[in-house]
From TrEMBL:
<feature type="binding site">
    <location>
        <position position="112"/>
    </location>
    <ligand>
        <name>(6R)-10-formyltetrahydrofolate</name>
    </ligand>
</feature>
<feature type="domain" description="Formyl transferase N-terminal">
    <location>
        <begin position="7"/>
        <end position="187"/>
    </location>
</feature>
<dbReference type="Pfam" id="PF00551">
    <property type="entry name" value="Formyl_trans_N"/>
</dbReference>
<keyword id="KW-0658">Purine biosynthesis</keyword>
<dbReference type="InterPro" id="IPR036477">
    <property type="entry name" value="Formyl_transf_N_sf"/>
</dbReference>
<feature type="binding site">
    <location>
        <position position="70"/>
    </location>
    <ligand>
        <name>(6R)-10-formyltetrahydrofolate</name>
    </ligand>
</feature>
<protein>
    <recommendedName>
        <fullName>Phosphoribosylglycinamide formyltransferase</fullName>
        <ecNumber>2.1.2.2</ecNumber>
    </recommendedName>
</protein>
<keyword id="KW-0808">Transferase</keyword>
<comment type="pathway">
    <text>Purine metabolism; IMP biosynthesis via de novo pathway; N(2)-formyl-N(1)-(5-phospho-D-ribosyl)glycinamide from N(1)-(5-phospho-D-ribosyl)glycinamide (10-formyl THF route): step 1/1.</text>
</comment>
<feature type="site" description="Raises pKa of active site His">
    <location>
        <position position="150"/>
    </location>
</feature>
<dbReference type="GO" id="GO:0005829">
    <property type="term" value="C:cytosol"/>
</dbReference>
<comment type="similarity">
    <text>Belongs to the GART family.</text>
</comment>
<dbReference type="GO" id="GO:0006189">
    <property type="term" value="P:'de novo' IMP biosynthetic process"/>
</dbReference>
<dbReference type="InterPro" id="IPR002376">
    <property type="entry name" value="Formyl_transf_N"/>
</dbReference>
<feature type="binding site">
    <location>
        <begin position="17"/>
        <end position="19"/>
    </location>
    <ligand>
        <name>N(1)-(5-phospho-beta-D-ribosyl)glycinamide</name>
    </ligand>
</feature>
<feature type="binding site">
    <location>
        <begin position="95"/>
        <end position="98"/>
    </location>
    <ligand>
        <name>(6R)-10-formyltetrahydrofolate</name>
    </ligand>
</feature>
<dbReference type="InterPro" id="IPR004607">
    <property type="entry name" value="GART"/>
</dbReference>
Amino acid sequence: MAATGKMRVAILISGRGSNMVALLEAARDPAYPAEIVLVLSNRPDAAGLARAAEAGIPTRIIDHTAFPDRASFDAALDAELRAASVELVCLAGFMRILTPEFVAGWAGRMINIHPSLLPLFKGTHTHRQALEAGVRLHGCTVHFVVPELDAGPIVAQAAIPVRQDDDPDSLADRVIVQERRLYPAVLALVAGGRARLEGERVVITEQAPEGVLFSL
């Protein structure tokens, strides 16, 4: 834990970093229990890097195309995180599949936000998947990361109704609003010790805000 008493957090991005911005804004509150100490991208052209720099957050680029395989990229990523004394990793639109070895090294210390109500609609194009399945509720999930894609223990979810006239874009627009609300709330819980991983289950010691479904 940092000298400030706040958990040292890195955010990994590959693009515009919309959820990253929500986390940065939340962390500006002196009472927030996490300190964002690094924003790292695997893409040099990720728009979120400039937004993080504008907020005064150190940024790093580890271009995955410069490495011969996933293992060597992950080793460089791990070294950068440890050099910054990172205690918790937040994936925010980080479009890389991490090796089991890397995930094991950060087990219980890495969370991700996914744009569906897991375990439904893993992978990509989740909004189209939801519409094709005809579900009446859709949303987003924050979960701990495990080697299997989008399969880790769920910390919290936020749900919205699916409207008759929704298309993937309109659904995405409403889900991202919930993502930006949910991720900072969950990071605060994890960094503050109010949500913890016990085996394959998340134990939470706080009542959920209205509209947010915690894994209880």
